[in-house]
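Dear colleagues,

I hope this message finds you well. In preparation for our joint manuscript, I am sending the MarR family transcriptional regulator (Natrinema soli) sequence together with its predicted structure, so that both groups work from identical material. I would be grateful if you could confirm receipt.
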Amino acid sequence: MSDQIVLTAKTAPDAVDETPPSAKLVLTVLAHEGSLTQSRLAEETMLPARTVRYALQQLEEHDLVDSQISFADARQHVYSLNDDRFAKADARE
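The corresponding C-alpha cells are as follows:
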C-alpha cells in the first residue's frame, strides 16, 4: 500500500464527524494531493473561497490540519493534514 493516508470511518479521528461536508471534502483533497494553499484547495474542490476558508477554520479548530506560511508567497498559508492526529487514529486500529 502507498504512503498516502486513506480517510475512512475506521481511520479518521472522531473529530472529522463533527465537521461540515465541505471540511470533509477539503480533508480528502489534502489526503490525496498533499499540502496546498487555500486558493489551490478552492480550485481542487471547486468550492467558493469563503467556503474553503470556513472549512479550514473548522479543521484547524479540531486540530486536523496544520498550516505554515508559504515560502513562495509569505501572504499565503500552506495547509496539510496533521500527521500526528491521523497517526494516532491509525494506531487505534
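For the figure legend, we might mention the following. The chain is about 45% helix and 15% strand. The mean pLDDT is 84.

With kind regards,
E.M.
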